[in-house]
What does this fold into?
Amino acid sequence: MQISQKMNKAINEQIGREFGASLQYVAIAAYFDGQSLPQLARYFYKQADEERGHAMRFIRYLLDAGAGVNIPAVSGPKAEFGSAEECVKLSLRWEQEVTKQIYGLMELAIKESDYTTQQFLQWFISEQLEEVSSMEKLLTVVRRAGEGGLLLVEDYLAREGHPEDKD
Ligand SMILES: [Fe+2]
Ligand SMILES: [Fe+2]
It folds into this structure.
């Protein structure tokens, strides 16, 4: 195994959080879908796919490093929401939290002089910059439009798409 037991465990925990984020975004997408807001729904379904992709990236890394994959139990997502703003605020908080978790993994990799994991985590550090900044942008747009103006948000998203569409 090319990483420490401690790093292996920390990454398995992160895999659980990425899957947790994926479920949370599906729940938010379903809320928007149920409100007949297809663009917001699409945005969050896409976000959910991305989080699954993050979990898979960590799993691939553990396998490459000859480490054990042990996916923890994932608690159910929050399912009821009062407004679009609440959904996006929750998502932004989540992304800020994940950024801290990635920094935590990086700190451990630095402490252990684990250069391979440091290199691997660089991708996530750039990814979190993008995720936090796009969620902040969406929150600004949702607040500006207001709950009664969500069709403006739909127009905006139809025009701008999801940040990953451009990749
Ligand atoms: Fe993620
Ligand atoms: Fe994310």
